[in-house]
Design a protein that fits this description.
Blueprint lengths: L7 E10 L3 H13 L5 E5 L13 E2 L2 H6 L12 E2 L2 E7 L4 E4 L14 E2 L2 H14 L3 E4 L3 E6 L5 E6 L2 E3 L5 E6 L2 E10 L6 H9 L11 E10 L9 E7 L8 E7 L4 E9 L9 H8 L3 H7 L3 E11 L10 E2 L2 E3 L15 H20 L9 H7 L2 H6 L5 H8 L1 H18 L39 H5 L14 E3 L4 H10 L3 H4 L5 E5 L5 E5 L9 H5 L5 E3 L14
Parallel strand pairs: 1-2, 1-13, 2-8, 5-15, 13-20
Antiparallel strand pairs: 3-7, 4-7, 5-6, 9-10, 10-13, 11-12, 14-17, 14-18, 15-16, 16-17, 19-20, 21-24, 22-23
Helix pairs in contact: 1-3, 1-7, 7-8, 10-11
Length: about 550
């Protein structure tokens, strides 16, 4: 079908896919360096920030480098961190880890509790003031490639494909947006980044990328329980030995609190139900006391990149660069990646502007690797590269000691006695067989502190138009029932935080795999964790998905 469609095209110096912190930083810096460059940013959300979900305690290092006068320009960083706690939870109690035991990099002094959605909305205003063109609701769904594999642009704005993927009565073919360079800033597990990495084998010298599933609720709490600027991180209960992970509780302004929970997706027990672990966590006495009498305002979920320095793919390809979470630039122990996303965008812009000034285009900017190797990004990620693989290999308590020692030595002396740990298996390969693990009995949500998935999904304000081409595709439709259900216990019914997948009985009493794609919050966990790697997440038509407020 694709070969038969004729599309109009528009040409730019640089085409950027994704209006997150990395993409917007790239756009802003390009125009700072050369105001005459033509730059376009494509955003699949209904508005900039609609699909942005992050903790977030923001290290302002990225903004400092990009827009030094961000305070004077009104950046929405209103809540500096005033109190920072690390706690190990048991079923009924807790033990605080003294801050003096934590490596200096874990200190949140000077950081801000923010809504990254609002930060990106503000960054979009700064970009537009520099004459960057931003097209929200304009999903980039295909790559435009030359015969030699060079990425020359993207197809964006295609609407009206029916359930079979064929043009419907209201079909709009979209446009080809062509650039001398294309920057991929889609965020975690982006569909175009995934294609480019595979086509050009950008990850052949990297460890498998690792991920976590982050779930987050925005709560309004009673004024007497609110402590603006307070930051709490926990680990331990309720996950225990079933999975790695932890939580965060951030008090922002207006009596609002971010309550989040992260489950590492390399868990073995396929009976683990990450969403229900999150709901159970809120019944811990420490958390329940905070939330009692409050109300949940919003909910969302997204995957988090956790592989670290050794899992980065090559960030350049013929025709462009990969930046931000698409490249996996999250500092796992700090639970921060937005600052590195911004820095990577700034560095990418400078590399591209220099290349354009010398008359180059559509080539592989291989020198970008040298730039990254000598950047603050490496100085941030390299010393903590062993934390995640240690946790996976030795468990929480042992890795706390070993990882803490390794980070202290690298931060203070610049040495590691342990070299670089590898990750081994991918998260999908880590999934064990159902028969080898006991099922887990999760308490029923009470509707006050904890909620069922479908109720919570309504608070993500997600919308997908009925009758369109499903954006969740199966390589083999028989695999869920014939393989995943009998062998792995049908884990997709549990690992999805939005209730997209379920096994139901048909009229003859046979098992049937049902995909409720309209619930999808674009977390991409299915694309990552499916043990058969049979589910492919692709971009739905523009503007659809969650509409996160203040998240």
């Amino acid at each position: 079908m694709a070969e038969a469609i004729e599309r109009e095209s528009m040409e730019y110096d640089v085409v950027i896919v994704g209006a997150g912190p990395a993409g917007l930083s790239t756009a802003i810096r390009l125009k700072q360096v050369n105001p005459d460059l033509s730059v376009v940013v494509l955003e699949k959300g209904s508005e900039v920030g609609a699909h942005i979900l992050s903790g977030a305690v923001l290290d302002p290092a990225g903004l400092d480098a990009l827009i030094p006068d961000w305070k004077e320009k009104g950046a929405p960083l209103h809540t500096p961190v005033t109190d920072d706690k690390f706690v190990v939870l048991g079923p009924d109690g807790s033990m605080r880890l003294p801050n003096m035991m934590m490596p200096p990099l874990m200190n949140n002094h000077g950081n801000y509790i923010v809504s990254m959605g609002n930060v990106c909305r503000w960054m979009a205003e700064q970009a537009e003031a520099l004459d960057v063109e931003i097209f929200p609701g304009f999903a980039a769904s295909q790559l435009v490639m030359g015969d030699d594999g060079v990425i020359k642009g993207v197809v964006a704005g295609e609407f009206g494909l029916d359930a079979q993927g064929e043009p419907g009565p209201d079909y709009e073919p979209g446009m080809e947006l062509l650039g001398k360079y294309v920057v991929i800033a889609e965020g975690v597990r982006g569909s175009l980044a995934k294609q480019i990495i595979a086509r050009h084998e950008l990850d052949k010298n990297a460890e498998p990328q690792k991920y976590g599933l982050g779930m987050k609720e925005l709560w309004e709490v009673k004024p007497e329980k609110h402590k603006q600027g307070s930051v709490l991180h926990t680990m331990g209960w309720p996950l225990g030995k079933n999975a790695g992970g932890g939580s965060f509780v951030y008090h922002l302004e207006n009596n609002q609190v971010y309550v989040g929970f992260v489950v590492h997706l390399n868990y073995e027990n396929p009976h683990v139900f990450p969403y229900m672990e999150f709901q159970r966590f809120k019944h811990h006495p420490m958390i329940a006391d905070l939330l009692e009498g409050g109300k949940r305002v919003a909910y969302g979920a997204r995957a988090i990149v956790e592989g670290g320095w050794q899992s980065r793919p090559k960030m350049s390809f013929p025709g462009g660069l990969i930046v931000g979470c698409s490249a996996g630039l999250v500092n796992v122990p700090r639970i921060k990646g937005n600052h590195n996303a911004m820095i990577s965008g700034k560095l990418a812009a400078e590399q591209i502007a220099e290349a354009l000034a010398s008359g180059r285009s559509h080539d592989d900017l291989v020198e970008f690797e040298h730039t990254i190797q000598n950047s603050d990004i490496k100085r941030d990620l390299y010393p903590v590269r062993n934390v995640k693989p240690m946790w996976s290999r030795y468990g929480m308590l042992t890795s706390l000691g070993l990882g803490g020692l390794d980070m202290q030595l690298q931060n203070r002396l610049g040495i590691s006695l342990m070299g670089t740990f590898n990750h081994g298996k991918s998260d999908s390969e880590s999934t064990g067989k159902a028969k080898d693990f006991d099922p887990i009995d999760y308490p029923k949500p009470d509707g006050k502190l904890s909620f069922d998935r479908l109720t919570n999904v309504a608070y993500s304000f997600t919308n997908h138009q009925e009758g369109q081409r499903p954006h969740l595709l199966l390589k083999d439709p028989s695999v869920p029932v014939d393989v995943n259900l009998p062998v792995y216990g049908g884990p997709s019914a549990r690992y999805c935080p939005a209730g997209v997948y379920e096994f139901v009985k048909d009229d003859a009493g046979n098992d049937k795999f049902q995909i409720n794609y309209q619930n999808c919050v674009h977390c991409k966990t299915c694309d990552i964790k499916d043990p058969s790697q049979n589910i492919v997440w692709s971009t739905p038509q523009g503007g659809e998905g969650p509409n996160y407020p203040n998240m």
